[in-house]
Amino acid sequence: MLITLETSTEQDVTFNEYDGFNQLKKVITGGVIAEYRYNADGLRTKKVINGTETRHIWDSWNIAAEPTGTTITAKYTRGINLIHSDMAGTVNYYLFNGHGDVIQLTNSSGSVIKTYDYDAFGNEKTPDLNDINPCGY
């Protein structure tokens, strides 16, 4: 069973397609087509955005790396929570609140490059469409 959700603004129309497990399978918006695949545990194993495939390598329930082709494009180091990410040589560190939500992202020199604020339902209050950080609430 596929469920399709359409949202629109004056500028754009977004189509979201979900499967029977409520997993996002496809997004079409502004000329971008994104498709997603999941394993039997419900963990996303692959995303394809406009033909570029990125796989997800998991360590138990935590994402550990993202290879694109034969190149590792992102690596994640964890302790109790996510400590840092290395995305194509750009290292960022994660800061959390008492609930374990990502509230800031810093670069290797300690400068804050992004601050996150969430509503009561975990939705980011001021989302940035250019933000490549996959971790949040």
Give me the secondary-structure topology.
Layout (H helix, E strand, L loop, with lengths): L2 E6 L4 E6 L5 E6 L2 E7 L5 E6 L2 E4 L1 E3 L2 E7 L2 E8 L3 E6 L2 E7 L5 E6 L4 E4 L22
Antiparallel strand pairs: 1-2, 2-3, 3-4, 4-5, 5-6, 7-8, 8-9, 9-10, 10-11, 11-12, 12-13
Give a brief rundown of this model.
This protein is an all-beta fold. It is built from no helices and 13 strands. A hairpin with a 4-residue loop joins β1 (3-8) and β2.
Note down, in words, how this protein is organized:
The strands form 2 sheets. Strands 7-8-9-10-11-12-13 form a 7-stranded antiparallel beta sheet, with no helix packed on it. It has strands at 3-8, 13-18, 24-29, 32-38, 44-49, 52-55, 57-59, 62-68, 71-78, 82-87, 90-96, 102-107, 112-115. The chain has 137 residues and is mainly β.
> Sheet bearing the most strands, described?
7 strands, antiparallel
Order of helices and strands: EEEEEEEEEEEEE
Q: By helix and strand content, what is the structural category?
A: mainly beta
Distance between the termini: 29 Å
Average pLDDT? 87
